[in-house]
Amino acid sequence: MSAIDRAFAHDLASSLAAGPQQVIALVNSVVQALSGVRTVTWLAVAPDHSVTHRIGTSDKVNFPIGGFDPIDDGAWNRRIFGDKRAVVGNTPEQMRQFIPETDQLVAMGYGATLCAPIIIGGEVRGVLCALGDAGILTPDLLAEIDTILPIAALVFTFNGISER
C-alpha cells in the first residue's frame, strides 16, 4: 500500500513541472470533488504584506484572477493573518461575521465559505477559499481540506507567485 495515491502523485509531479497554474488546477479538482464545494479561489499575500490578490480560481467569470484587497484590521484579516486560523462560515450568518461581501455571495447562490491560510515557515503566504451551499462545512470536510493544504502550499514555492 502506498501512502499517496500513485495516480495523484503522477499528476502532482506533472503539475509541478508545468507551473503554478497547473498545480492550482489540480488542487481545485480535488477540493471541488468534496461534497458540496462548488468554487475554489486562491489568494496570495504581497511580499510587503500590504495586500492580497487572487492568483487562482475555478470560476474565472465570477472570481477573476487579479484585483487587490488591503490587509487591514477587518475581522477576516485578523483571523487569517493575526490568529493564523481559518475563516469558517457554514451559514450566511456565520459568513457575515468575517466577510463584508456576504450578501453578494448569497445572491450568487453560496451559503458557506471556508478560507484557510496557507502557512509556510510561520508566515501566511496565501489563502485557499472554498465556497458552496450552506451546511457543507462538516468536521469531515474540514479535515479533508486540512489534508490538502500542505499540497496547496506548493503553489507558494514558485518564484514570483506573490508578486503584484
From TrEMBL:
InterPro entries: GAF, GAF-like_dom_sf. Pfam families: GAF. It comes from the Bacteria. Residues 27-132 form the GAF domain. This is GAF domain-containing protein. It comes from Devosia aurantiaca.
